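yo

u said u wanted the structure for the complex thing, so here. seqs first:
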Amino acid sequence: RKEKKYIDQCWKDVTVGDFIRLSCNEVIPADMVLLFSTDPDGICHIETSGLDGESNLKQRQVVRGYAEQDSEVDPEKFSSRIECESPNNDLNRFRGFLEHSNKERVGLSKENLLLRGCTIRNTEAVVGIVVYAGHETKAMLNNSGPRYKRSKLERRANTDVLWCVLLLIIMCLTGALGHGIWLSRYENIHFFNIPEPDGRTISPVLAGFYMFWTMIILLQVLIPISLYVSIEIVKLGQIYFIQSDVDFYSEKMDSTVQCRALNITEDLGQIQYLFSDKTGTLTENKMVFRRCSVAGFDYCHEENAKRLESYQEAVSEDEDFIDTLNGSLSSTAKPRSHSCRTVHNGPLGRNHLAGSSSAPGSGEGASEVPHSRQAAFSSPIETDVVPDTRLLNKFSKIMPQLFTPLDETIQNPRLEILYIIDFFIALAICNTVVVSAPNQPRQKIRLSSLSGIPIKSLEEIRNLFQRLSVRRSSSPSLASGKEPSAGVPNAFVRTLSLFSRVKLASPVEKEISQMSESPLGSSNSTCHADIEKQSGDAGFANGKVESRPGQPLVSNLCYEAESPDEAALVYAARAYQCTLQSRTPEQIMVDFAALGPLTFQLLHILPFDSVRKRMSVVVRHPLSNQVVVYTKGADSVIMELLSVASPEGASLEKQQVIIREKTQKHLDDYAKRGLRTLCIAKKVMSDTEYAEWLRNHFLAETSIDNREELLLESAMRLENKLTLLGATGIEDRLQEGVPESIEALHKAGIKIWMLTGDKQETAVNIAYACKLLEPDDKLFILNTQSKDACDILMNTILKELKKKNQASPEQTLLNGGSLQPPVPQDTGLRAGLIITGKTLEFALQESLQRQFLELTSWCQAVVCCRATPLQKSEVVKLVRSHLRVMTLAIGDGANDVSMIQVADIGIGVSGQEGMQAVMASDFAISQFKHLSKLLLVHGHWCYTRLSNMILYFFYKNVAYVNLLFWYQFFCGFSGTSMTDYWVLIFFNLLFTSAPPIIYGVLEKDVSADTLMQLPELYRSGQKSEAYLPLTFWITLLDAFYQSLVCFFVPYFTYQGSDIDIFAFGNPLNTAALFIILLHLVIESKSLTWIHMLVIVGSILSYFFFALAFGAMCVTCNPPSNPYRIMQEHMLDPVFYLVCILTTCIALLPRFIFRVLQGSLFPSLILRAKHFDRLTPEERTEALKKWRGSGKMNQVTSKYADRSAVKSGRKPMSGPSAVFAMKSVSSCAVQQGNLSVCETALDLCYSKSKVSKIA
Amino acid sequence: MTWSATARGAQQPDNTAFTQQRLPAWQPLLSASIALPLFFCAGLAFIGLGLGLYYTSNSIKELEYDYTGSLDTGNCSACAEADQDGAPPPNCSCALNFSLPEFFQGPVYFYYELSNFYQNNRRYSVSCDNAQLSGFPSALRQPVNDCAPYQYGAAGLPIAPCGAIANSLFNDSFSLWHELPPSGPYVEVPLDRTGIAWWTDNHVKFRNPPLVNGSLALAFSGTAAPPSWPRPVYELSPDPNNTGFVNQDFVVWMRTAALPTFRKLYARIRQGNYSAGLPRGNYSVHVTYNYPVRAFHGRKLVVFSSISWMGGKNPFLGIAYLVVGSLCILTGFVMLVVYIRYQDQDDEDDSDD
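structre next:
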């Protein structure tokens, strides 16, 4: 700093009062007040995605007084004092003032504050002074520590550990009591009651008391302390496998699943309720312009739709190639695929190919797709819009007519044309989009020709800009806004000629679009020909455009908008040659293909807010020189603001009404298709009107009291009597694979709730689109304005639902219904519930909670729209705490954070909206579709693995420790261990520790494919089938039995012989080892070489240890005497016989049970496991059969059916079943034709369904 | 080619069989059809083994004679009841008569059996000093505390061998007499008292302390005998190779029994005319009755047993194998029924579906 230079420092060294200079794309290290920005307007753009998840750009203002300074703030000369409030966690508030040395105070607000964690964008450099640093920054204060989550399984295991403690205490009490009684019989026998060193003997009571503690030490292994260590290791292994699953890898983002919580993997297998955000989670949050309606005509942009499809095809084609050819493309396949893909891209390339190189060389064609996909800001899918041919025709037709005087000879087609022009102007300018080239700050483009000249002040910029525009307007074809009359004649001729050419070109284009429908059929040469023709056509059509000096920039322009919708609209406008060229606070330059750049003088912007739900720009139209208000907003709002009485006369008024009706129809249609709708309207004002409004508005702006209200009023004054221009439909595209995932999760018995801030229509449409709701679902909409109404409505719906469900009485109560293995087709009713945010507020109140939950439990899907982040988390909390179910929340934005934190498992989608959700989540995935594999496969695996391992651990400990306990009955409960202490320790630590861990990590009851194909298998996890309290007790019983066998077989064998203590313990130990390891083999559903290695290794290590110990330990470890025992026993056939017999008897019951279970009453999972052994063809057959039986409810009633079939050879499951069986068998005959089979099956299902309903 | 290179990101996990959990695995599907042969095979094998064990065990002869007292087999009851305290009078001796109706196939092992004697009582079984028994002079002078209260004698001398186990050394002695010609004079049957302990115990684990001036007694000087021992440890046997800590009786006793009823080997009969076994005739066991068992309701027995590859007589193992084998066969049949009926069923399902 001494050298008057900024020095690089670590973030940790930043302290309050430091001056920090940051360049573009740097992350802000501390909360600081903005003092200087290279932006001439004193504006700094920041991206706050790190804080609130919003990826749009926000503006921050240099502190007043500093904005006017011409050079960078000199820290040495900074003599002002900053006073601000103490650090707090409110991101949206900052109060303080800056006191200059002359006691002049300047207020500071959040507009001046750069928050830590944000990123500087589009601004070359900024300088600020740090006000909060380190832990005092707002970002850090917002960071509440992570909630400690403990998995359900672990909680379950903990209670069972308590049972084990109880068992231990009982056993120790038995020991103590037994010892006391035993000793009381021999109190005076010095053989047994060995006196203390001082010669006194201990009383039996005292000895019993001592014995209690001795026993605790002896039997403490019963409490599986090592279980916790093993669980952690197993979870680490599971997480390793989850993270290395290649299916979770998203190439686009080069990211895979992130497990941020290490201790709740098994909860993934028990999810019952899923709460999903919509935007960015289910949808891509990439807005794609799909349709528009202008002046009552719907332009459906079919080509665009086609392009979107073909885009996907192209992508999948790409992937196919990567998969199959793996980089080494055969030379024959290569050119064909490329050229054909280029044809696919043909329509979309029409626009941007024109600007860039349009030679479709086979090599370039290949690299183009991935390249453009990796474009810095948005993918081509978003930016490229293929114009609707019809609209384009009209659009190009009317361009010249702009220059005919506007107010004369207005006829219907003319009016429509005017509408279209205005519509696109509105699209292009009614926004807050920032224009930039990719990866470059804004200035560089705007001043590209002047980059050498230093920027002195705003005034100078303005001058420069004017010079620039003057220079541009002097080029021959330009019509500048300043001098409209001068440009007119020239441009008129030009555009006229262009018009004719475009018209000529359009049939060719149609041909191309036809070609693109059947591109694969066309041969190589025709492909090439088409491309050439098309590129020629493109170049032809845009020939003028390209020749102009400024134009090449167009293809490089990037629009960065506050909301993706805006960008989508601007891109759409660009597709119609109405390109937003640049934007300054004073001017907006729009480049029309036909006219060249038009500069709109920007008079005013009324920014978007959620109350008005609209935004407006006031501009001076360069051609008509009128003041025009363009308004864009939600359809419901705009429709109310439309002018009732049009000044143009009755016929026009009528036409407006017609347009309104038509547009409304289109809007409804769009909404039905799940499009986000916006209405575009305009209003022409006279200068005097505007001046008057401006005066009032200025008053409102400057007023101090209730400024917001006044501003709102002022906006209302401006935005009225609008003329409807049209409407747009923007698609928030569903993410890839979302409907399939939702369907699978539904089948898996997971109840899915969609919680979104979007409006009802959009939410419902998305719900339909992603198959959350089925078309034949019964929808109940809860949208009330008062609590009582909500109450009544819920009651009615409940009654109705109950009435309908009486047919299926097994669906009884609250969560009972959801936990049944339901066969949805059988219940005959699928209900969906839509609830709005307002009503949700009532429903979440104490008195209505129960009712609400009961209602939702009847519904397959619940959609909450207009929900606030807080409501989202409250809903999750309510369901979680009241229904006692496992919940999962998935979201991608900052508004989902609270919900993610509250749920049992929070999943963050690392997508568009920054990292906030990911940071709060337990698992982060890159796409929603990965959720199904995460839950269905890994969740299932983790849960079954871990629960089986925990049960096995309990079993292992109890079985082994009980051996010691049984021995106590034969040694006077004196706490003798017949095993050497080292062996005792190592038994758990070495010989039997690795197999359960391997079992917990690698066990695979059903293969991943089967689990994905049969989501029903997930239900076993929801019902905690693998680890019920009963299972625990059965396991303990088995452990008791096995330990009894393991003790008493050697006992009876060696009874009355001359065997000594440790020689007696040896076969016990050995047999126990074999029993415990083979028990694991029986329980394992899959054994790999790793299992084998570990089990064999364990056995070998045991023998090695025992032999080594027996050989070396002559006098070591005094009380025990292992010397040569193993060696002696290894030579003794009886030892082997005892071990074999013990092992067999101990394992026989479990083995028999498993065998009988396998053939008599296999669980779903066991049945599914059979699929893993089949060949792919058999598999598809079997799967179909499975699904068939599932649909006919044979899964549950299979055994009844079986017995019925067996006894009378007459299927009793009703006529539908008979029909189904027949049709299936007929299918089986014609094995060759699978599709016929399928249709037949479908037919029979529908019939059976019908018959059941009837 | 460029896209194939760029397609693989840095984050992409390895696609191997291990990381993708696709390792080839043996997936045992336990069902009747698989278990069926297993059960039959195991059952047959077990029954075979069981029969073998059973016959082996049956071929082993075993004779047990309780000499605690109160029985009519001898006159030991006098010794047993001599003292109401439970301790027999000193130097009481008695005889136990029995007759063998037929030849007792040798080699014959001579055991004594104690019942209800808890050698496995923890405080008892830890009460010895392995280091002392291994002949370390330091341990001889300073026995471990485990030996208390038999650690130091009344005079403060260290007890050798210390501890409760050694103190309670079984001190009855037996001799076997055979009435050689019927109703003739008794001839003593030679008892081989060597080799009754484990070789390793006798030669490695138990060592006498280094001799002092060639004398074992001097090596043990400065130590006291256990309180209940009539003589010091170096006088356990007149045989210099069998006295002190390496006395075989002592070594056998020190290997604490696992269960409260136990046998310990006393001698082997394998010399002279008796190497093949005990001929039929009348026998008499002369007992020097020292060891008190009445106090803890224990019993003392002498046991003659022949021996086979599977050790002493033990019918349990054979019977257990037979039972388990039969169970396996039985289960096998059940499985067969299950298999037939449900296999049938499955086939039907397949054809029906």
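The radius of gyration of chain A is 38 Å. Chain A touches chain B through 109 residues (CB under 8 Å).
cya
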